[in-house]
């Protein structure tokens, strides 16, 4: 079955494990209903990356005060993720390990006012694989900013999720058209096997 983004996916490439990092965006209890359907693919992606010695970075979105939410309070009608609550915590089902970095953020982009950029460049990362939630908000904004900052971006079609299929498909079209190579679990598996 043809996917709605297929006509825009004219570029194909596999990540290079030697210079890649996996970004797992905001897989928190607040988003658990949205994240549960993609959890098997997300865990498969995490395991594939770990086997390929690709570092995994998790992000966590939350707010500490009325000073750190910018336009989000207006846009979310005050429905914000407050730090220190159960909703703000990363889901327990994630395969987190002691050495994994958790990047704390308070807006859509994982790069805005965080140390993610420095952490990646310091480690020699030139490519990022984007997974998590929400496809059309934090994942898309992070992917766009990674592209602008000079990273080659790979965007997962089956380990990202959002509240609406149309919004998910719209992001995949935008990513394929101008920002990212699309990947899924199977493509990553094949790509990493080819690099061994």
From TrEMBL:
Superkingdom assignment: Eukaryota
Classification via CDD domains: cysteine_hydrolases (cd00431)
UniProt keyword Hydrolase, yes or no: yes
GO BP term (any one): NAD+ metabolic process
Record bears the keyword Hydrolase: yes
Single annotated GO MF: nicotinamidase activity
Isochorismatase-like domain location: 20-185
Matching InterPro entries: Isochorismatase-like_dom, Isochorismatase-like_hydrls, Isochorismatase-like_sf
Keyword annotations: Hydrolase
Family: Belongs to the isochorismatase family.
Protein name: Nicotinamidase 2-like
Species the sequence originates in: Juglans regia (English walnut)
């Amino acid at each position: 079955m043809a996917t709605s983004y297929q006509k825009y996916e004219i570029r194909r490439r596999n990540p290079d494990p030697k210079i890649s990092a996996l970004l797992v965006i905001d897989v928190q209890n607040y988003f658990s209903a949205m994240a549960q359907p993609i959890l098997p693919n997300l865990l498969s992606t995490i395991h594939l990356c770990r086997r390929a010695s690709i570092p995994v970075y998790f992000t966590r979105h939350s707010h500490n005060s009325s000073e750190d939410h910018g336009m989000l309070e207006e846009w979310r009608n005050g429905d914000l993720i407050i730090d220190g609550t159960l909703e703000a915590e990363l889901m327990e089902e994630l395969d987190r390990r002691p050495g994994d970095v958790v990047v704390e953020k308070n807006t859509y982009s994982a790069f805005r006012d965080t140390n993610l950029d420095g952490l990646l460049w310091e480690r020699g990362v030139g490519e990022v694989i984007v997974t998590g939630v929400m496809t059309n908000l934090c994942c898309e904004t992070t992917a766009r900013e990674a592209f602008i900052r000079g990273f080659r971006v790979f965007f997962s079609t089956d380990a990202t999720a959002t509240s609406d299929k149309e919004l998910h498909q719209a992001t995949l079209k935008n990513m394929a058209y101008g920002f990212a190579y699309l990947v899924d679990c199977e493509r990553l598996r094949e790509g990493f096997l080819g690099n061994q």
